[in-house]
Amino acid sequence: MDATKMMELLSYTLPSLVTGGVAYYLFNSYFKDQQHTRRWLSQKETQQQALPLRLQAYERLSLFLERINPSKLLLRVAPIADHKNDYADYLIASIEQEYEHNLTQQIYVTSACWGYVLTAKNATIQMIRKATLNTEITSAQELREYILKDLFDKDAPSNAALAFIKEEVRSIW
Questions:
Q1: Cα–Cα dist 29/33, whole Å
Q2: Residue 83's beta-bridge partner residues?
Q3: What pTM does this model have?
Q4: C-alpha torsion angle, residues 103, 123, 138, 147 (rounded to 10)
Q5: What average pLDDT does range 83-109 have in this prediction?
Q6: 70-74: which pairs have CB atoms within 8 A and are 24 or more residues apart?
Q7: In the beta sheet, which residues pair with residue 139?
Q8: CA torsion sign, 58 to 159 to 104 to 102?
Q9: What is the pLDDT of residues 71-83, one digit of tens each?
Q10: What's 109's DSSP letter?
Q11: In terms of Cα–Cα distance, which of 63, 67, 79, 74 is closest to 149?
Q12: Rg value, the chain, Cα
Protein backbone atom coordinates (compact mmCIF):
# COMPACT_ATOMS: atom_id res chain seq x y z
CA MET A 1 0.00 0.00 0.00
CA ASP A 2 1.38 3.33 -0.86
CA ALA A 3 1.35 6.44 1.32
CA THR A 4 -1.50 8.16 -0.50
CA LYS A 5 -3.82 5.23 -0.02
CA MET A 6 -2.83 5.12 3.65
CA MET A 7 -3.54 8.86 4.06
CA GLU A 8 -6.86 8.49 2.30
CA LEU A 9 -7.85 5.59 4.56
CA LEU A 10 -6.78 7.55 7.63
CA SER A 11 -8.67 10.66 6.50
CA TYR A 12 -11.89 8.59 6.40
CA THR A 13 -11.27 6.47 9.49
CA LEU A 14 -10.04 9.11 11.92
CA PRO A 15 -13.10 11.43 11.69
CA SER A 16 -15.47 8.48 11.95
CA LEU A 17 -13.65 7.23 15.07
CA VAL A 18 -13.78 10.70 16.64
CA THR A 19 -17.47 11.04 15.76
CA GLY A 20 -18.17 7.57 17.14
CA GLY A 21 -16.28 8.37 20.38
CA VAL A 22 -18.15 11.65 20.86
CA ALA A 23 -21.49 9.94 20.15
CA TYR A 24 -20.65 7.19 22.64
CA TYR A 25 -19.71 9.74 25.29
CA LEU A 26 -22.88 11.79 24.74
CA PHE A 27 -25.20 8.76 24.74
CA ASN A 28 -23.48 7.34 27.82
CA SER A 29 -23.81 10.67 29.67
CA TYR A 30 -27.45 10.97 28.61
CA PHE A 31 -28.36 7.47 29.79
CA LYS A 32 -26.53 7.95 33.10
CA ASP A 33 -28.40 11.21 33.62
CA GLN A 34 -31.71 9.52 32.79
CA GLN A 35 -30.94 6.68 35.19
CA HIS A 36 -30.01 9.19 37.91
CA THR A 37 -33.25 11.12 37.28
CA ARG A 38 -35.36 7.95 37.48
CA ARG A 39 -33.62 6.91 40.69
CA TRP A 40 -34.17 10.38 42.17
CA LEU A 41 -37.87 10.37 41.22
CA SER A 42 -38.30 6.90 42.66
CA GLN A 43 -36.56 7.92 45.87
CA LYS A 44 -38.69 11.06 46.10
CA GLU A 45 -41.87 9.03 45.68
CA THR A 46 -40.70 6.51 48.26
CA GLN A 47 -39.92 9.28 50.73
CA GLN A 48 -43.36 10.80 50.23
CA GLN A 49 -44.91 7.45 51.03
CA ALA A 50 -42.53 6.66 53.91
CA LEU A 51 -42.72 10.01 55.70
CA PRO A 52 -46.23 9.45 57.11
CA LEU A 53 -45.18 5.98 58.25
CA ARG A 54 -42.06 7.35 59.95
CA LEU A 55 -44.04 10.08 61.67
CA GLN A 56 -46.60 7.54 62.82
CA ALA A 57 -43.79 5.39 64.22
CA TYR A 58 -42.43 8.36 66.16
CA GLU A 59 -45.93 9.07 67.46
CA ARG A 60 -46.42 5.49 68.59
CA LEU A 61 -43.02 5.39 70.27
CA SER A 62 -43.81 8.67 72.03
CA LEU A 63 -47.06 7.17 73.27
CA PHE A 64 -45.19 4.04 74.38
CA LEU A 65 -42.70 6.14 76.34
CA GLU A 66 -45.52 8.11 77.95
CA ARG A 67 -47.31 4.89 78.89
CA ILE A 68 -44.20 3.36 80.52
CA ASN A 69 -43.36 6.54 82.39
CA PRO A 70 -43.53 5.25 85.98
CA SER A 71 -45.68 8.11 87.23
CA LYS A 72 -48.32 7.40 84.59
CA LEU A 73 -47.87 3.64 84.66
CA LEU A 74 -48.45 3.44 88.41
CA LEU A 75 -51.65 5.46 88.13
CA ARG A 76 -52.95 3.45 85.19
CA VAL A 77 -52.04 -0.02 86.47
CA ALA A 78 -53.55 -0.58 89.86
CA PRO A 79 -52.29 -3.41 92.11
CA ILE A 80 -54.13 -6.69 91.67
CA ALA A 81 -52.83 -8.05 94.96
CA ASP A 82 -51.22 -6.65 98.08
CA HIS A 83 -47.90 -8.43 97.59
CA LYS A 84 -45.17 -6.16 96.18
CA ASN A 85 -43.58 -8.87 93.99
CA ASP A 86 -46.87 -9.65 92.30
CA TYR A 87 -47.44 -5.97 91.59
CA ALA A 88 -43.89 -5.51 90.27
CA ASP A 89 -44.32 -8.52 87.97
CA TYR A 90 -47.64 -7.09 86.78
CA LEU A 91 -46.04 -3.69 86.04
CA ILE A 92 -43.14 -5.29 84.19
CA ALA A 93 -45.52 -7.49 82.19
CA SER A 94 -47.49 -4.38 81.26
CA ILE A 95 -44.30 -2.66 80.05
CA GLU A 96 -43.24 -5.73 78.07
CA GLN A 97 -46.68 -6.00 76.49
CA GLU A 98 -46.54 -2.35 75.43
CA TYR A 99 -43.04 -2.90 74.07
CA GLU A 100 -44.02 -5.96 72.04
CA HIS A 101 -46.97 -4.04 70.63
CA ASN A 102 -44.58 -1.36 69.32
CA LEU A 103 -41.67 -3.60 68.33
CA THR A 104 -42.20 -3.19 64.60
CA GLN A 105 -41.75 0.58 64.80
CA GLN A 106 -37.99 0.10 64.90
CA ILE A 107 -37.86 -0.30 61.11
CA TYR A 108 -39.08 3.28 60.63
CA VAL A 109 -36.76 5.05 63.10
CA THR A 110 -33.00 5.38 63.36
CA SER A 111 -30.91 2.91 65.31
CA ALA A 112 -29.97 5.62 67.80
CA CYS A 113 -33.63 6.42 68.43
CA TRP A 114 -34.50 2.78 68.92
CA GLY A 115 -31.55 2.45 71.29
CA TYR A 116 -32.93 5.29 73.42
CA VAL A 117 -36.37 3.67 73.51
CA LEU A 118 -34.92 0.30 74.48
CA THR A 119 -32.74 1.88 77.16
CA ALA A 120 -35.73 3.74 78.59
CA LYS A 121 -37.75 0.53 78.76
CA ASN A 122 -34.94 -1.39 80.45
CA ALA A 123 -34.20 1.42 82.88
CA THR A 124 -37.86 1.62 83.89
CA ILE A 125 -37.96 -2.12 84.51
CA GLN A 126 -34.71 -1.86 86.45
CA MET A 127 -36.19 0.95 88.56
CA ILE A 128 -39.18 -1.24 89.45
CA ARG A 129 -36.99 -4.26 90.27
CA LYS A 130 -34.65 -2.17 92.39
CA ALA A 131 -37.57 -0.76 94.35
CA THR A 132 -38.96 -4.27 94.84
CA LEU A 133 -35.67 -5.40 96.42
CA ASN A 134 -36.02 -2.76 99.14
CA THR A 135 -36.79 -4.69 102.35
CA GLU A 136 -38.60 -1.74 103.94
CA ILE A 137 -41.33 -2.06 101.34
CA THR A 138 -43.86 -4.72 102.27
CA SER A 139 -46.93 -4.06 100.13
CA ALA A 140 -47.88 -3.10 96.61
CA GLN A 141 -49.15 0.29 97.78
CA GLU A 142 -45.84 1.05 99.48
CA LEU A 143 -44.04 0.06 96.28
CA ARG A 144 -46.13 2.55 94.30
CA GLU A 145 -45.42 5.31 96.80
CA TYR A 146 -41.69 4.54 96.88
CA ILE A 147 -41.34 4.66 93.10
CA LEU A 148 -43.34 7.89 92.87
CA LYS A 149 -41.25 9.51 95.60
CA ASP A 150 -38.10 8.34 93.83
CA LEU A 151 -39.27 10.16 90.67
CA PHE A 152 -39.41 13.47 92.56
CA ASP A 153 -35.62 13.32 92.91
CA LYS A 154 -34.83 12.38 89.31
CA ASP A 155 -36.32 12.29 85.83
CA ALA A 156 -38.13 9.26 84.52
CA PRO A 157 -35.99 7.16 82.15
CA SER A 158 -38.49 7.72 79.35
CA ASN A 159 -38.00 11.51 79.42
CA ALA A 160 -34.54 11.33 77.79
CA ALA A 161 -35.83 9.05 75.03
CA LEU A 162 -38.84 11.31 74.48
CA ALA A 163 -36.56 14.34 74.16
CA PHE A 164 -34.43 12.43 71.62
CA ILE A 165 -37.53 11.53 69.57
CA LYS A 166 -38.67 15.16 69.55
CA GLU A 167 -35.25 16.29 68.35
CA GLU A 168 -35.15 13.62 65.65
CA VAL A 169 -38.59 14.56 64.35
CA ARG A 170 -37.53 18.21 64.33
CA SER A 171 -34.54 17.26 62.17
CA ILE A 172 -36.81 15.64 59.57
CA TRP A 173 -38.32 19.02 58.76
A1: 6
A2: 139
A3: 0.72
A4: -100
A5: 93
A6: 70/124, 70/127, 70/128, 70/147, 70/148, 70/151, 70/156, 71/148, 71/151, 71/156, 73/124, 74/144, 74/147, 74/148
A7: 83
A8: negative
A9: 999 999 988 888 9
A10: S
A11: 74
A12: 32
